[in-house]
Amino acid sequence: MREFWFESTGVRLFAVEEGTGRVIVMLHGGMADHRAALPLIAPLGSRYRCIAPDLRGSGKSWSGGPLSFALLADDVEVLLDRIGAHRAVVGGVSLGSGVALRFALRRPARIDGLVLIKPVYAGDEHGYTPQQQATFAMMDAVAMRALDEGVQVLRPLYENLPPQLRDKALAMIEGFDAASVVATSRFVASGMQPFASAVAGLRSLQCPTLLVRGNDALHPAEVSDLYGANIPDCTVLPATTTDVAAAIGEFCDRHFIPAR
After folding, report:
1. 52-69: per-residue pLDDT in tens?
2. Measured distance CA(142)–CA(157) in Å, rounded
3. Which domains are delineated in the chain?
4. What tens digit of pLDDT does each residue of 131-141 get?
5. Under a CB-based contact definition with an 8 Å cutoff, are residues 83 and 13 in contact?
6. 3-class DSSP assignment, residue 201
7. What is the pLDDT of residue 256?
8. pLDDT, tens digit, for every residue of 190-221?
9. Among residues 217, 203, 184, 167, which one has the least CA distance to residue 35?
10. Per-residue b/e over 41-67, b at no fewer than 16 CB within 10 Å?
11. What separation in angstroms does the CA of 175 have from each of 31, 32, 46, 64, 66?
């Protein structure tokens, strides 16, 4: 696994990569870092160039400035420029799926395929569900304390996760920056959306898309239903899909010629 840094609008951003060939970029969710996305693409490193960055305001990509989907999508474009790739398959989990979707809408000439795993965002016309609003507001209230009390205030947010996920999440916290945590939390709690409407956004996507459905309060099934019903070339997998990496590999192999 190779590590590298790149700069985008004055912020130093971090990423890891493995493999050669056509590029797959996978973006992690909120309050996480590249380690949350890496298992979804690392198994494909024998035939693809797999890259997992820390989003601006996450992991080692420290930034306390305001975030937006346009800014995060532009960071993806700068990443592609940095590695010399004109086009890529871009995917994301949870918050990362919103960034990937915004990138596909913003730079359609640079995307080969789109992977959306447990999407959160229903667009401006729907916004968050009441439960999403309440949960993200609660998380934001906790995160805001990080400036005065340190990033360890996040630990209770992860304690109810399954043991394997919990241990990984708690390990991520150790490298977090308090100002970055606050910036990310503010962004998530704001309710900002990566597209306006199903008609203006989802239906305009022209790239092959793989969707792994969500099925919980933060990743509502109705959001996945909205995507599946409106994205033109969309392969939908159930939320119970266990080997998502294999599914991504099959999707990429079906649409593109992998390196040999």
Report:
1. 999 999 999 999 999 999
2. 8
3. 2-128+195-255 (3.40.50.1820)
4. 999 999 999 99
5. no
6. coil
7. 85
8. 999 999 999 989 999 999 999 999 999 999 99
9. 167
10. bbbbbebbbbbbbbbbbbbbbbbbeeb
11. 11, 10, 29, 15, 20
Nearest CA among 175, 187, 2, 13 for reference residue 99: 187
Q: Where are the strands (E) in 94-241, listed by range?
A: 111-117, 209-212, 234-237
Taken as a whole, the chain contains a residue count of 260
- The reply to whether the predicted model has a pTM over 0.85 is yes
Binning pLDDT at 50, 70 and 90, where does residue 184 land?
very high
Q: What residue type is 215 in one-letter code?
A: N
- Token readout for 34 is 């590249």
Cβ atoms < 10 Å from Cβ of 153: 18
Whole-angstrom distance, CA of residue 215 vs CA of residue 225: 10
For the chain, the C-alpha Rg in angstroms (whole number) is 17
Backbone angles phi and psi of 85, in degrees to 5: -110, 120
Please count the CA atoms within 13 angstroms of the CA of 93 that sit on its side-chain side: 23
